[in-house]
Amino acid sequence: MTEMLVARIRREYVRWRLARKPLRAVAHGFGVGILAVAAFVFLSASGEINETAASVLVAVVFGVVTVIQQRQSQRRQHTVGLITAFQSADHLAAADVWMASRISAGREVDGDIPEADEGHVLSILDYYEFLAVLALRGMVDIPLLINLRGGTMTRCFQLCRAYVEDRRLRAGPEVYRSLELFATEYARRTGHGLRRPFIREQPPSGTAADPTESGPEDLPEASAAPA
């Protein structure tokens, strides 16, 4: 019962963190409004309200709004910096190209992957886990990250699910848990549930592939545009 409650709280927390920007803006505005009304009622009840107090109250409200806007701007800059670093780091760029080829071919990554390729898998999964942790803690711009990498991160986790499960058997159940939460919520928002990937079988030598076969349905990038 306790584990189910913890899992439910975690899911709701993730959904709030990854909620669409208008919803979060409304919630923040509502919270600031409640604080302003509470302060006004308190000052009115104590008989301390006057023009100076009212001016201070208005200044505080605008100050809070300014701080929120500054934090959003900093998160956008931080997110752009992380994505830029991803593209400029040689080992991550190589891992990204390697994973893109696996995604295009619909080839699942499991625990029996050759040692020479495992470095690519670890690099890309570790980096996406890092981004997912930052997203769930509100330290990056969520709409921007979802727009730039949401679909790719989800497809990557989907293809690497068997590998992740194998790692969890050896290292514990929390391995790549944040990435899984991020991918699950992204798939829920886009209407594409996470599922076992389709594995395209290689046709026997001299036999043409069946043109009716298709790989895993691509998860579209979210339509949310960064503000």
Notable traits:
227 residues, mainly alpha, disordered C terminus
Explain what you see:
- The protein is mainly alpha-helical and 227 residues long.
- The protein has one domain.
- The chain is built from 8 helices and no strands.
- It has helices at 2-17, 21-46, 51-88, 90-105, 115-136, 142-159, 161-171, 177-190.
- Helix 4 crosses helix 5.
- The chain is elongated.
- The chain starts with a helix and ends in a 37-residue tail after the last helix.
Q: Can you lay out the helices and strands and say which pair or pack?
A:
Layout: H1 2-17, H2 21-46, H3 51-88, H4 90-105, H5 115-136, H6 142-159, H7 161-171, H8 177-190
Helix pairs in contact: 2-3, 4-5, 5-6, 5-8, 6-8
Short description:
This protein is 71% helix and 0% strand. With 227 residues, it is an all-alpha fold.
**What characteristic shape results from the CA principal axes?**
elongated
Strands, count: 0
Helical segment count: 8
Q: Helicity, in percent?
A: over 70%
> What is Rg?
23 Å
Element pattern in H and E: HHHHHHHH
Question: From the structure provided, what is the oligomeric state, counting identical versus distinct chains?
Answer: single chain
Low-confidence stretches: 196-218, 222-227
- Report the sheet with the most strands, covering strand number, pairing sense and barrel closure: none
Proportion of residues in extended strands: under 5%
Number of domains: 1
Distance between the termini: 41 Å
Structural class: mainly alpha
Average pLDDT confidence is 74
